[in-house]
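Response to reviewer comment R2.3. The reviewers asked that we include at least one raw input/output pair. We reproduce the pair for C-factor here without editing.
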Amino acid sequence: HSNLHVLQLDGTDYKGFDGFAKQVADIVGDRGLDTLINNAGIALTAKLDAVTADDMVTNFNVNSVAPLMLTKALLSVLKQSAATKRKTTVVNISSLAGCITLIHKVPFGMLYPYFTSKASLNMITKCLSVDLASHGINVVAVHPGHVQTDMGGERAKITVETSVNGILNVIDKLTDDDAGKLIGYDGTVMPY
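Raw output as returned:
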């Protein structure tokens, strides 16, 4: 499609984010960018007896730091969109595993790098929602469900299509009252 532009980005090469942002700005022009979905993520699943500092740092870099730094790099085109009074949204793909109040219900043990990186992303989402509200930019976190992907595996409950359609529906129905929340792909507001 003529509106489709495929750009490559190494999500942990933070020095490359400004160049990437310039490419995006050149494509979107004076309309700006109305939707940013930070979807990159990895799941290092080390439990307490095996977790290392490198596991923790690697998972935080990809799942927490990269979405924040990319949002920061694209802030000018997001603000440009919001200034035109278009609905402008940043969506961080988080996880139920980042819910501190529900973590005791996880049946397969504590996976320190992944769980804590997603909890961190939830706080980043809340902070961004506060900082960007005055610019008309709505920031939310979305739990995609347990999806049949390489990460979710064969035992996952929902298909990629179900998750994606649900996420797009959530984005479409977002209001200012949703800012900073964690919302499931089915529209359910989840606790932090």
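Residues 14-190 form a domain with the Rossmann fold fold (CATH 3.40.50.720). The longest strand covers residues 137-143. Further pairs are available on request from the corresponding author.
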